[in-house]
Amino acid sequence: xxDRHALSQPSRSFLTQIFLSPDEPRLRxxxxxxxxxxxxxxxxxxxxxxxxxxxxxxxxxVTALQALSPIDLIPTGIAMTLSVWIARRLLDRRSFVSLGFxxxxxxxxxxxxxxxxxxxxxxVIYAIEAGTGWLRFDGWAWETLPVGQVALGLTGGLLGFIVxxxxxxxxxxxxxxxxxxxxxxxxxxxxxSSVIFALSHLGNPNATWYSTLLGLIAAGYFxxxxxxxxxxxxLSIGVHIGWNFFEGSVFGFxxxxxxxxxxxxxxxxxxxxxxxxxxxxxxxxxILPAMALGVGLxxxxxxxxxxxxxx
Length: 311
Fold this sequence. Notes:
Layout: H1 4-8, H2 14-19, H3 29-58, H4 70-92, H5 106-131, E1 135-140, H6 147-184, H7 186-199, H8 209-230, H9 234-250, E2 264-268, H10 272-275, H11 287-302
Antiparallel strand pairs: 1-2
Helix pairs in contact: 3-4, 3-6, 4-6, 5-9, 5-11, 6-7, 6-8, 6-9, 7-8, 8-9, 8-11
């Protein structure tokens, strides 16, 4: 039987099929992500040059900045925001807010609860490792550092983690996950965005393929679960900020290979495959049951919500 409606439609050329979405007059998801990435590199380069120029004018040594200094991270946050905003408007033909930034009564509580949930998760990891002898308690931060320096380190760490939590969720669970979901479905969106997230940390100190393939891909799924439950990014951002802050600034673990000022001074002594060693818990098997606990807590917190729209 011949479909006369199909015959009446103009056939799509080969190039059109490769580059353009079949259901909307816009580029396919993969090309949108590629162009956003190029745009990010261009804007980041421009912002970095501006930072160097300003630093030269005020005679500030930018090389003295620490890895998680808020001042060092803000240019990346600006570049990330601008590149995603431009790509969202011009390439996706959607609003920036539609990525998951609708501010409603749930938003502040989502941020807070995400933060606290990961505090519980990190506390459980610390308790398990301390109880099994997989770490050695070395003391408190103020026993070796001035109290003012500890307070400054904790404040700077929190501010830095806020910036990182925002812009990494904006990119990976916002732009990447949702564009891949649009083009290939939620399953591929979760998987590929988590892989990209994990690969972006390969340059971190003490990173290994093992840590990337095990913990960080799982972390990508875990961080995405807040968005899956709410279709907003607030909960995922809160989870990301809390994960880094409690991991490093409170319990003294390395944060994806980076050492920060922590209230607790401790040394991992257990098997690296279990504890994650110098990279932090996300590189060890300990992370898997901890994330399962976090998923359960997120589910409990969001169980009364109206079901998000189906994909």
